[in-house]
Amino acid sequence: MRFIYFIFFVLLVFIAVLVGCNRNPYAATNKIYKKQAKAFAKILKQSPPKDSAMAFARWAGTINFNMRKPNFVIIHHTAQNSCDQTLKTFTTAVSQVSAHYVICKDGTVHHMLNDYLRAWHGGIARWGNVTDINSASIGIEMDNDGFEPFTGPQIGSLLQLLGILKKSYGIPAANFVGHADIAPTRKNDPNVFFPWKELADNGYGLWYDDTTGVEVPPDFNNMQALRIVGYDIRDSSAAIGAFKRHFLQQDTSKVLNDADRKVLYTLYQKYQ
Questions:
Q1: How buried is residue 41: exposed, middle or buried, by Cβ count under 10 Å (0-12/13-18/19+)?
Q2: Nearest CA among 222, 154, 160 for reference residue 191
Q3: Angle between the 258-271 and 236-247 helix axes, to the nearest 10 degrees?
Q4: Cβ distance 241 to 248 under 8 Å?
Q5: Could you tell me the end-to-end alpha-carbon distance of the chain, in angstroms, rounded to an integer?
Q6: DSSP-based three-state secondary structure for 258
Q7: What's the pLDDT tens digit per position in 230-262?
Q8: How far apart are alpha carbons 184 and 200 in whole angstroms?
Q9: Does the pLDDT of residue 14 top 50, yes or no?
Q10: Cα(31)–Cα(29) distance, rounded to whole angstroms?
C-alpha cells in the first residue's frame, strides 16, 4: 500500500514539474497586453472619437486611410545582466520602459509589441527634425551589459530582423541609428563594440568612404555637418562624442581632429 502511495506521489510531482515547465512565464502579462490592445481598438472604432479636439464638428469618415508606420529603427543595449532580466523589466508596469524587440545573446528574438504601436524606448530624444522618436520608430534592445562585444548569433538575428523591417515599412538606410545618436547627452548605447559598419554594409545605416586623399574644404562647418547627419547640436560636445562613438568607436573624446573631420565630411556628403 505504501508503495502505491509512493508511486502516486511521484506521479503528482512529475505532473507538477511538467506543468510548470510548459507554462508560459509571460501568460499573465500577455493577457494584460491583449486587454490593452482591445481598449485601443475600441477607441479607434469610435466615430466620431469621444475625446476629439473638434468634437463639435460634423463627422464625415473618409475611406482613404491606413495605419501609421514606423520610419526609424533605434538600437539599444539593455545594460542588464540577462535576457530574462530585461523581459521582466519590460513586463513590469513600474519600469515604464519597453521595446518592440529584445534579442538575446543566443540569437533568440522576443517580439514584445506590435510594430504599429508606440513603445517607450527613446525617451527625450531628437534626430534631425523628429522630436517624438517613440511615435516614429521601432526599438530593438540587444542583451548586453554595455561593456562587452555582441555575439555572432545575436548580430545574425538582428540582421535578419532588420531586413524584414526595412522591407515591410520602407525604412531608409539612413534611419537605422543608435540610442546614443538620438540622445547624446543622456545615453551611450549600444556600446563601442556594436558593429555599425557591418550593419551599413548590409544596408542598415550609412558609413563613410575611404578617406585617403580626402581634402576637407577650409570653410567646412563641423557642427552644421553633424546637424545635417541628424545630431542634436545644442550640446556640441555631446554631439561630437556620440558621432565618434558611432563611427570611430575607439575615441570618444569631445574634439574633432583632422582625421575625424575627413570622416565627417564624407558622411556629410551622403546625408545631403
A1: exposed
A2: 154
A3: 90
A4: no
A5: 85
A6: helix
A7: 999 999 999 999 999 999 997 668 899 999 999
A8: 21
A9: no
A10: 5
**pTM strictly above 0.90:** no
Q: How confident is the model over 198-213, as pLDDT tens digits? A: 999 999 999 999 999 9
Identified catalytic residue from 141, 148, 198, 215: 141
Question: Distance (Å, rounded) from C-alpha 88 to C-alpha 84?
Answer: 6
Domain ranges of the chain: 68-207, 208-272
Spatial neighbors of 264 by CB under 8 A, at least 6 apart, are 222, 225, 226, 229, 243, 256
- What dihedral do alpha carbons 115, 118, 119, 124 form, nearest 10°? 140
Distance, CA of 157 to CA of 152 (rounded, Å): 9
- In degrees rounded to 5, what are phi and psi of residue 103? -115, 120
Contacts of 172 (CB under 8 A, 6+ apart): 71
Spatial contact of 135 and 149, defined as CB atoms under 8 Å apart: no
- Asked if 110 and 102 count as a contact pair (C-beta separation under 8 A), the reply is yes
CATH class of this structure's domain 68-207: alpha beta
Give the list of residues 6+ apart from residue 198 with CB closer than 8 angstroms, or none: 155, 159
141 is a catalytic site residue: yes
